[in-house]
Structures are given as C-alpha cells and as structure tokens.
UniProtKB/TrEMBL annotation:
One protein family per Pfam: UPRTase
Compositional bias segments (type: Polar residues): 12-24
Name this polypeptide is given: Phosphoribosyltransferase domain-containing protein
GO biological process terms on file: L-serine biosynthetic process
Taxonomic placement: Eukaryota, Fungi, Dikarya, Ascomycota, Pezizomycotina
Start and end residues of each stretch annotated as Disordered: 1-24
C-alpha cells in the first residue's frame, strides 16, 4: 500500500494585518473552500484523506469520504445509489456537495472531499465523462493524485474491498490522461483551481501547505499582501517622495520571461501527460475563460509548482535570466534612481519574480531595486492587473507619494491611470501589444489621463500620434530631472481676503451679470492681478519716459515685457487675459484651446509665458498645458493667472503633486475656493461670459 511520507509543519503564511478575518480569507464563510481530492480508483485517495485529517486537524478542516456523503444524500444509502442511472447519480452528488458547503458555511471550516470524475471504462468501451454541468459548481479547488499507472494497477490488484474490474495498464494510462485533460479544462470553465500532485514525490507537509494556502488565499488577501510587500520595500518613507513602478516583461527588457521559461523547459524535458504538445501552457490558460483574472494567475502558479520542484525551478529561472538583456535606457534610469534617497523604483510584475531578481542582480541593481511578483506558492501572492493598480493607488492616494508607472498593454491601463505620471512603453512591432493603441485612444483625456510614450527600440513604431501620446526619451536630462525632482509647494499669490478682491469678485459671482458686463469685470480683474502680483513674481524694469514738465524721467514696465507671451485658455480665459494685456501692452498675445495650440515658434526668444483662465477647478487642463510647455522649453517662466483656483488643485490633489515638481511655475489668483463644481449652463463661466447658457 502506498505510504505518504513526511511530517506536517505549520503553514508559515504571512499575517497580512489579520486580513483573513475581514478580507475574505480563512473566514470567508459565504464561499468556503471546497477542495476535491481526485484520482483514479486505486490512487490512494482514502489513505491520503485519513492522513490529511490527522495532519491538518479538525479546527479549520473537515474531511469527507465520497461514499459516506453520497450514502447520506441518497435514500437507501450507497447500495441504492449504485443502482441509479447516471442522471440520478449526478443529482445525488450535487445534493451531497451542497450539504457539505452548507456545513462549511455554518462552521467556517474548509472541506476536503474525495471523488473521481469518470465512469470506469469497461473493456473495449470509450471513457465517458462522469460530470453533469452542476457537479463542479460547489468546488473551489481540485487536487488530482497523479499516481503512476503501474502503481495504480498494483493497488487495485491487492484491493479486495472494492467490486470493480482491473483494466490493463494501457487502459489506466489512457483513462488517467483523459481524466486530467478533462478536469483541467472543466476547471477553467468553472473558475476552479486545479493542480496535479504526485504522492510518490510530494510529502504530506507539501500537500498540507498547498491545502492551507487554498484555505487562506483570496483576491482581497492577495491585494492586501501586495500592498504590505510594497510597504516593506519602502525602507525610508519619511524621506521618500517618488516611486517608480514598472512591470518587467517587455518593459525592463524586450523578452517575456514566461515564454522563455517554457521554451527552456521543453528543451530540457519531454512533454508531460498533462501538457503534451510542447506549447506554452500559459497561453492556453490566459486564452481560456479565466482570462487574466486572479484565478488565472493563481492557476499559473500551480502550473509552475506542478512541472518543477523548487530546486529545478530556480535552476530554470537562472537559465532564463541569462537570456534576458535589459534595455540600456531603463538601466540608465534605474542607476540614476539608485543614487538617490528620495526616489525608489520597484518592479511589480505579473511574471516570474525569481527571474527578474536574477536579472537585476546581474546588472548590479538588486540592492536598490526590489521585485514584487510570483511564480511559486511560497511567494505568497500573484500579481494581476488589478493588483498593480491597487499598489499604485495606495502609493499615490494613501501614502501621498508621487508615482511614475510604466506599462505596455491594456492590462496596465488601470495602473497607469492611478499614477501621477504614466509612461507607455512601445516595443518592437513583432512583440508589442497592438490592442494598446485602441485602448489608449479611448481613455486618453478622461479624468485627466495624459500618458506619454517611450520607444525602447529604434525599430518601434510610435502609438497614436504626438498630440495624443507625446514621446519622451528616458535619457533626456529633462525627464531624468522630472523623475529625480524634489517636491516643492507651488508658489502662490492671491487676494482672497483683501477688500479690493471682495469688490472685484462681486460682479463675477453675481448671477445676474453676464455678457459684456461680465467680460468687463473679468478684464478689470486681469488688470488688477497683473499689476499687483505678476510684477512681484516677474519683476519690473525702468525705461526713460518724457515728464510732463519737459525732462526725461524713469518709467517702469514688466521685466522683459516684449519677451512675454500671454495665452488665454479658451474660452473662459480670454476676457481676463485682455486685462493682463492692458497692464502689459508690449506682450505677445496668443489664443490656445488645447496644449498643442502652443508650438515651439510661439516660445522662441520668450522669457515668460502667462497662462490665463477664469477658473482652475481640478487643474487637469492646466497641468496638460504646463507639461506641454515644459516639453518645449525647459526653463521658461510660467505664471498662471486665474480668477478662482480650487485650492486642492494646487495643494493636496494628485494634480498638485505633479505641479509641485515643476520649477519656474507660479500661481496668481483673485481668490481661493474650496467649492469645486462641474459647471454647465448657468453655472459655467464661459457660457455666462458669452451669453450661451441656454445652448448645449
């Protein structure tokens, strides 16, 4: 009789702030873990159930033998069940599993249930599936005992307690291969985790750890653990200001670690019974109904566990790492980051953690650049697209850090949108994600999403166009300066509490004032802000003027007034901009509705640009203008003049964080406001200025 080996050890899963109790882990009784233990008759399921029951204890687990649960669910017991037709048997099995699920919901325990999936094939008969559509509905995980067919035959020949035929080994081989293939496919259609375990190779300890992992792990637990891992990596949070989050595959290098891993594996070993054609099983997995879900990435981890032991897995990772060549521009960026204390780069990868740690170690970057990723159950987590987005969102909104995110596919979009600055990596045409272009075109401009792109290969074709998706070079000193910049609170001058401001703002806030009268009020405000505050920021210069008494005297004007460009953000900023121009008549005046309306020739020989808008609300449009201007001119002074600025836009919001990283940027406002509104019709300033409140 086959004997399980080893001694059960306690599972050393990290305590993620006791996440299990509140995040759907061990005490997620609404959907308890129902773990099926499958295998051919004679594979040792009963022995393993008894061994696991002793090793795991009954505090958190309940073990059920298939014959017992079916007998309890069938009037007349097991003998009556054996006389039923297949449809009736399926109904009884479903009743039995439903009873188990209800018991687990009541007790908070996880169930381990024995069963097999196929009707025993008689001689010259074709194997038939033993599963009706509802049979799998109750399972959350299935472990299949992958016992060698000769061992199964031996166990069957010595088993006198079962009344069943003993087919030849060739039949057992075909039966087992069909059963594994069928179960693997069915599980992917029913959102069930499936894995093979080899009792002759695995100890009770290893199988116990897998089962404990099944009980503990959930999608919420997984996200919580990823955030905790990031917190552990940020070693000096008090000094830290900026975090760069990068995926690894096709970002750090052109290669895909998963593809290379399976290519190397098939070169080293022949195809297994479960995946026998030498193809990449990850592609089949992610092309299945599981898609790129949490369950799919957990299943990918089980595939790695299934195919190789820990030592062999690490050896394969080492081989794969030597085939990966990091992009020179990425290396330069990470080296620059590594020399700082206030910037941290972290690789958050859906790929294999061990491979990318070895790549970074080879490049001399592993001391500073850490990796969050999976590949083995001992990693504790899997990185999914939603995990990457959650990690970035936590860094930005909870910890208040400035985040650059690098991604290359539609699955990175949520992460990119959660970052302060999003960089889309454009790879070579043969390996790039072509669906990314359509996804970007749909999302760019929504909620302030303004990514940029970087081509890490000279052969890469840019995505979209330079207006929708501006290009940046990672080695550009201006970009490096942006990444390494130290945050400073924006320089702001405003007149919120001044008596003069209260008079000037009255007609602007008066709902009965519109059209020419309101435009004149805005013009007066523009003039006031120009002479009161812009001169303080920009400075003034003297020049000779004729005195009324007939001699020359000193007059004053804005410093470099002829080299100053006034840009109203249309339509709302035009009237106020005219007032600024009244104060500074030598300035050039240029209308702009979108950032790209400002071209390099507009900034040529200019020392200052004054952006004028009536209201700065969330600040997304303003940020887009500032980013565009800085991409054209690194040092030109930028002064923003507005009637009203919503205070979080330049103090606490994500936009404020971004604006605070620009040097030479100043703000002038008549007043600050805590009242942010989405203006339409009668509340929209531009509509009031031009009497269009009744137009769509």
């Amino acid at each position: 009789m086959m004997q399980p080996s080893g001694v059960m050890h306690s599972n050393a899963r990290p305590n993620v702030n006791e996440a299990q109790s509140s995040q759907g882990g061990a005490t997620n009784w609404a959907k308890p873990a129902i773990i099926g233990l499958f295998g051919l008759p004679g594979s040792g399921k009963i022995l393993w159930l008894d061994t696991l029951e002793t090793a795991l204890g009954n505090d958190n687990f309940a073990v059920y033998h298939d014959s017992d649960i079916i007998a309890a669910a069938t009037p007349g017991g097991l003998q009556a069940f054996q006389n039923l037709g297949e449809k009736a048997k399926s109904h009884c099995r479903q009743l039995a599993i439903a009873r188990i699920k209800q018991e687990c919901c009541n007790t908070g325990k996880s169930a381990i249930v024995a069963g097999h999936s196929m009707v025993w094939p008689q001689q010259n008969q074709v194997s038939q599936s033993g599963y009706a559509p509802g049979d799998l509905a109750m399972y959350t995980h299935i472990l299949y005992l992958d016992v060698h067919d000769a061992m199964v035959a031996e166990h069957q020949s010595h088993d006198t307690n079962q009344n069943r035929p003993n087919p030849p080994i060739s039949n057992l081989t075909s039966w087992q291969a069909f059963e594994i293939c069928e179960l693997r496919d069915l599980c992917r259609h029913h959102d069930i985790l499936f894995t093979l375990v080899s009792p002759q190779l695995e100890s009770v300890s290893k199988l116990g750890c897998i089962i404990r992992d099944f009980r503990t792990h959930s999608e919420a637990y997984n996200k919580n653990l990823a955030v905790q891992r990031m917190d552990e990596i940020l070693t000096d949070p008090d000094r830290l200001e900026t975090v760069i989050v990068l995926d690894a595959d096709k970002i750090l290098a052109q290669e895909d670690s998963g593809v290379l891993f399976w290519e190397q594996l098939w070169e080293q070993v022949h195809a297994t019974r479960a995946q026998g054609d030498g193809s990449n099983p990850l592609k089949a997995l992610f092309d299945s109904p599981l898609g790129y879900s949490y369950t799919a990435f957990r299943q990918a981890t089980l595939l790695y566990e299934e195919i190789l032991g820990d030592v062999e897995f690490e050896a394969c990772c080492q081989t794969v790492s030597l085939l990966i060549h990091m992009h020179g521009d990425i290396r330069h960026l990470l080296q620059s980051v590594g020399r700082t204390k206030h910037v941290q780069a972290v690789v958050v990868t859906c790929g294999i953690r061990s491979v990318w740690e070895k790549v970074l170690e080879r490049e001399g970057l592993s001391e500073k650049i850490k990796v969050i990723g999976g590949g083995r159950l001992r990693d504790g987590l899997v990185v999914t697209p939603s995990v990457k987005a959650e990690v970035v969102r936590n860094l930005s909104t909870v910890q208040g850090l400035y985040v650059f995110a690098f991604g290359d596919s539609p699955f990175d979009l949520e992460m990119l949108k959660a970052a302060n600055e999003a960089i889309v990596v454009t790879g070579e045409d043969i390996t790039r994600s072509w669906s990314m272009e359509n996804a970007l075109a749909e999302d760019i401009g929504k909620n302030g999403f303004q990514p940029r792109q970087v081509a890490l290969s000279q052969h890469a074709t840019p995505l979209l166009n330079s207006t929708q998706l501006p290009s940046v070079r990672l080695t550009d000193p201006r970009f490096i300066d942006r990444v390494l910049a130290i945050y400073k609170r924006p320089y702001v001058l405003h007149a919120t509490d001044r008596p003069s401001a209260k008079l000037l703002m009255t007609p602007m806030r008066n709902a009965s004032v519109s059209g020419p009268a309101l435009r004149e009020a805005h013009r007066r405000v523009g003039y006031y802000l120009a002479v009161e505050f812009c001169t303080e920021i920009i400075g003034f210069e003297g020049y000779p003027i004729p005195h009324v008494q007939g001699f020359q005297t000193d007059g004053h004007r804005l410093l470099n007034e002829k080299e100053t460009l006034i840009v109203p953000l249309m339509r709302g900023g035009e009237a106020m901009a005219f007032g600024v121009n009244d104060a500074f008549p030598l300035c050039t005046f240029h209308h702009a509705k979108i950032p790209n309306d400002i071209q390099p020739e507009n900034l040529e020989n200019m020392a200052t640009i004054i952006l004028v808008d009536s209201v700065v609300n969330a600040g997304n449009l303003l940020l887009a203008f500032v980013q565009h201007i800085r991409s054209l001119h690194a040092t030109i002074r930028i002064v923003v003049v507005a009637g009203v600025i919503h205070s979080p836009a330049i103090s606490t919001s994500k936009v404020a964080w971004t604006l605070g990283r620009f040097t030479g940027l100043y703000f002038v406002a008549l007043r600050f406001s805590a009242n942010q509104v989405t203006a339409t019709g009668i509340t929209d300033t531009a509509d009031r200025l031009f009497n269009t409140v009744d137009m769509d």
